[in-house]
Specification:
Layout lengths: L6 E9 L2 E6 L3 E8 L5 E8 L3 H7 L5 E8 L7 E18 L2 E10 L1 H6 L1 E6 L5 H10 L7 H7 L9 E6 H11 L2 E6 L2 E6 L10 E3 L5 E7 L6 E6 L9 E6 L2 E15 L5 E7 L1
Parallel strand pairs: 12-15
Antiparallel strand pairs: 1-2, 1-5, 3-4, 3-16, 4-7, 5-6, 6-7, 8-9, 10-11, 13-14, 14-17, 15-16, 16-17
C-alpha cells in the first residue's frame, strides 16, 4: 500500500481558445463508467478556481482530461487518465469561503450522439470490414487486430444500406456477433456480452492492494459488488482477481463508480463485476 498514499489529481481543459491546466487545487469527482455503448456520466467539482479559468471552462466545445493517482514516495505523481470527455454544463456556487466550479461531463457524449454514417455495401462484403468502417466514423482510437480476432469472417448475403447514427447500426451488428462496444477515454473496445475474463492480465485485488470490505452479491443476484481504493488503471471490460475472506476468483468488470476528493475522505471505486 506504500504506493497508494498522497492522492493527486490533474485537470487539463481544451477548446478552440487553447488549453489550461489545473493542479494543486481541491478536486472532487464522481464518475460512472460502464461496458456499454451509452455515454458515461461524470461530475467534477473544482475549488477556488480563479475567474479567468472559470470563464475558460464556459467556452463551447470544451474537452476535459482528468488524471488521478498517488504521489507515493517518488518525486513525480503516478497518475493515469480516468476521464476524457466533453463538458456539457458548467455551474458555480459559493460554500462559505469557497467558490466551487461544477462541471457536468460526458465521456465521448458528442462523439456517440453526433456521428452519422451513410453508405451502401454490396453483397458479399465482409462484416468485420463494415464494423471497422463504422468505428472509423467515430474518430476514436481502436484496434483493427481486436476486430479481426473477435468478429467473424461472415459476409453479408445481400446489399446493405446503412444510414443514420453510427451507434444504432453498430449496436445491432455487434449484438449479432455476441459483442457490444464501449468507448473509454477516446478508445473503443469490444466487450463480450456474456462477460470475458482474461486471467493472464487480471488486476489483483486484496487487502494489501486496496480491497475494502468483503465483496458481496448484487441485489439482482447477477454478479458481485466490490469496493476498493481507486486504481486508475482499471476500466470496464478488464479482468480482476479478488482474494478475500472465502473468495478467490476472477471477475469481468462491467461497471465502475469512481468517487474521490483530494482533500477529503472519499477515494474509492465501486466495481460491478460478473
Amino acid at each position: 500500500m506504500t504506493d497508494q498514499i498522497f492522492r493527486t489529481a490533474n485537470i487539463v481543459i481544451k477548446n478552440d481558445a487553447g488549453s489550461i491546466e489545473i493542479d494543486n487545487l481541491r478536486v472532487e469527482f464522481d464518475i460512472q463508467r460502464g461496458d456499454t455503448s451509452d455515454s458515461d456520466t461524470s461530475k467534477i467539482a473544482i475549488y477556488n478556481l480563479n475567474k479567468t479559468k472559470r470563464t475558460f471552462c464556459l467556452k463551447q466545445n470544451s474537452i476535459i482530461q482528468l488524471s488521478v493517482g498517488y504521489q507515493g514516495f517518488s518525486d513525480k505523481p503516478l497518475q493515469k487518465l480516468i476521464l476524457l470527455g466533453d463538458i456539457i454544463e458548467v455551474k458555480t456556487k459559493r460554500s462559505n469561503a469557497d467558490i466551487i466550479t461544477i462541471l457536468e461531463c460526458g465521456d465521448t457524449e458528442k462523439t456517440i450522439s453526433d456521428s452519422i454514417f451513410n453508405k451502401t455495401f454490396k453483397k458479399g462484403f465482409p462484416i468485420k470490414t463494415i464494423v471497422k468502417e463504422l468505428i472509423s466514423g467515430f474518430g476514436v482510437i481502436f484496434s483493427g487486430k481486436e476486430i479481426d480476432e473477435k468478429i467473424s469472417n461472415k459476409k453479408i448475403f445481400s446489399g446493405l444500406t446503412i444510414e443514420g447514427k453510427i451507434k444504432k447500426s453498430l449496436d445491432v451488428i455487434l449484438e449479432n456477433e455476441g459483442y457490444r462496444f464501449t468507448i473509454q477515454n477516446n478508445q473503443l473496445r469490444l466487450i463480450k456480452i456474456t462477460g470475458e475474463k482474461n486471467i493472464n492480465q487480471a488486476l489483483l485485488l486484496k487487502k494489501e492492494t486496496g480491497l475494502l470490505d468483503v465483496p458481496f452479491a448484487k441485489k439482482d443476484g447477477e454478479g458481485m459488488e466490490i469496493m476498493a481504493f481507486i486504481n486508475p488503471s482499471l476500466s470496464p471490460g478488464d479482468t480482476i482477481k479478488v482474494e478475500s475472506l472465502n473468495i478467490n476468483a476472477f471477475y469481468a468488470v462491467q461497471t465502475l463508480k469512481l468517487k474521490g476528493d483530494t482533500h477529503g475522505r472519499d477515494w474509492f471505486m465501486k466495481i460491478g463485476a460478473i
